[in-house]
Amino acid sequence: MSAGRAFREAARARGEKFYISGELCSRGHAGLRYTANQTCVECSKDQQRRADEKRRQRRDSDPVYGEHRREQRRVANRSYGKRNRDKKSAEWMQWFADRLQRTPKWADLKEIRKFYTVSTMLSRLTGMQHHVDHIIPLRGKCVSGLHIAENLRVIPEFENLSKGAKF
Ligand SMILES: [Zn+2]
């Protein structure tokens, strides 16, 4: 029985996880071995480190890919928004109004969307930015309007800005 094997048997008998083989491993480490499978602890740590490094590299390279994907989505969204500006702003305003809970269940969403379509058309035709304005602001000082067709009108941008929320 080689010295290494004897040491291992002894370690196993004592229930020890590691033993010293007294021989160099194939990579020249003279340190501990695992009792269970004679693996060089130093080599196994090396392997672990290499695996960690590989995972880290993958993690590091994935964000690049992720960023690339994000940019792709951004571009796609941007051109969608350009092609469907009225739809986009209607959606946004809808979301805004929803949040303010100023859109009653009975609101005619189709009618509402028309205002945004008109606003976009007017902006294009006149070259002047138009907005959909809430006649009674959704968040007025005293009264709050509803996000309904009856409370909407299309006005040039500067008018919308100068009005403010005075109700
Ligand atoms: Zn080794």
Task: Label this structure with key terms.
binds zinc ion; 5 helices; rod-shaped; two-stranded antiparallel sheet; mainly alpha; 167 residues
Verbal overview:
There is one protein chain. With about 170 residues, the protein is mainly alpha-helical. It folds into two domains: about 1-85; about 85-165. Helices cover about 55% and strands about 10% of the residues. It contains five helices and four strands. Helix 2 (about 40-85) crosses helix 3 (about 85-100) and helix 3 (about 85-100) crosses helix 4. The radius of gyration is 35 Å and the shape is rod-shaped. The mean pLDDT is about 85. The structure holds zinc ion (ZN). Zinc ion binds near residues 25, 29, 40, 42 and 43. Zinc ion binds near residues 25 and 40.
User: In this structure, how is the largest beta sheet organized?
Assistant: 2 strands, antiparallel
How confident is the prediction overall: mean pLDDT? 83
User: Helices and strands, in N-to-C order?
Assistant: HEEHHHEEH
Unique ligands? zinc ion
- Count of domains: 2
> How many DSSP E strands?
4
SSE class: mainly alpha
